[in-house]
Specification:
Blueprint (H helix, E strand, L loop, with lengths): L7 E4 L9 E8 L8 E5 L4 E4 L5 E4 L8
Antiparallel strand pairs: 1-2, 1-5, 2-3, 3-4
InterPro entries: DUF1918
Protein name: DUF1918 domain-containing protein
Organism: Streptomyces pluripotens
Length: 66
């Protein structure tokens, strides 16, 4: 898994009815885009995460950013 600053980290719910948690990568602490990542959640709190298999990185569409 590789991420860059500004990417979204999506942690999928693991049980029925649990929503996905979305956070923004604010700092890549590993080498070459590897974990751990400092992330900011929608409510503003930050955490350091080493994502597991229930996570995915979503890269923002570079074409829409101008």
């Amino acid at each position: 898994m590789r991420a860059s600053k500004g990417d979204l980290l999506v942690q999928h719910g693991r049980v029925v009815g649990q929503h996905d948690q979305v956070s923004e990568v604010v700092e890549v602490m590993g080498a070459e885009g590897n974990p751990p990542y400092r992330v900011r959640f929608l409510d503003g709190h930050e955490a350091v995460m080493s994502p597991g298999p229930d996570c995915e990185v979503r890269h923002p569409d570079k074409q829409t950013q101008r």
